[in-house]
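FAQ
Q: What does a multi-component entry look like?
A: The components come first, one per line:
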Amino acid sequence: MEAHIEEHLKSSDTLRDVVIGMSDGLTVPFALAAGLSGAVDSTGIIIIAGIAEIAAGSIAMGLGGYLAGKTEQDHYNSEVKREYYEVENLRHKEVEETKEFFANIGLSEELQDRATEEIAKDKKQWVDFMMKYELGLDKPDPRRATKSALNIGISYIVGGLVPLSPYFFMHSPTDGLKISAIVTLICLFIFGFFKSRITGINPWAGAIRVTLIGAVAAGAAFGVAKLFEG
Amino acid sequence: MEAHIEEHLKSSDTLRDVVIGMSDGLTVPFALAAGLSGAVDSTGIIIIAGIAEIAAGSIAMGLGGYLAGKTEQDHYNSEVKREYYEVENLRHKEVEETKEFFANIGLSEELQDRATEEIAKDKKQWVDFMMKYELGLDKPDPRRATKSALNIGISYIVGGLVPLSPYFFMHSPTDGLKISAIVTLICLFIFGFFKSRITGINPWAGAIRVTLIGAVAAGAAFGVAKLFEG
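Then the predicted structure of the entire assembly, as tokens:
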């Protein structure tokens, strides 16, 4: 069971991207459309604003994910370089840091020294160790940034079309809002349920939390828009 | 210098929240307003839509941050429980896993055995070790979720008011868009510069990347909204 769950957590990069994109994609366009429904008379404006928001949000989040991936890679590469430099030129300092690691996890002085000695025998092995356990950095997948951007962007679009589509078929914003709220809150509940199951928390509690966020955001947007309209 | 930078990375939770909130706050309302500027005649609609989007986005992202923090905590707690259970009831399996860790970082068979023995002497120390180095989980700060929600939400609002405020003072959407684009792109550039400096990548390249994302998102929203208006 342990192995199963750890597997899960590792293979979940794509899933995490989809969750990030869909979570905001379902919520923000839903809330925006709800807000406008309280303030304008035509569904045309809501559709244009909704489409513009989906375009803006998917690009901002998708490219944001790309940038985050690229930054992670740049950061990793610059740290690797520095560790190699330090292992070669500041050996005593790195030995100290390595010993400190073993001291922190609870090894005796004798084992701290001997373990450090063994690790320091191989330069690459030593740097790998420092990267992962001193700095807590995993080697990022180079194709990750691009994949991440696409996953997040597309999930945002898919999510955003759910709350917006009822407005295409209804004549008044209020009717659109009713259907949109029903459909979106159901989708948020289902989405929250599976998202929580993946992260290992109680799926019913998680589903309710996610649905509540959507409802609160939509309610606030509705209230604020009404306020500024009046 | 190393110590300095590591300090930086640890103290940057708040900073990371601000970056998350402000990055989307500057970009998405900017792009939405730009999109609507190409499709509607009055700044009133743009202001209402912008305010609704800022309310929706700040709540969705803020509560999203809260949820992420809570989930992290729940996940950590359930894993701690499981590790204690395993240390007590599946001792041989945990010994295997601990030995494996030491094998992976490059220790000899003898040291693998002895290090495992020393760590396993103290149950709490052993579980702490497994949490951090087998599962890669750090103990989350219990007040983090709430702080994170506020930081992200407020940063989103502050960021979002930048592109929106010109529309309060201009009569036509096109004039509003011009000022909004100038002000927002400058802010994105400055914001991207400092964000990149914090994460340790080239600040000029980072500033250009962040500004480009904003410009592309706004351009796409403008184009898509024009398309749906026609």
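Q: Is there any commentary attached?
A: Sometimes. For this entry: Residues 88 and 123 of chain A are 9 Å apart (CA to CA).
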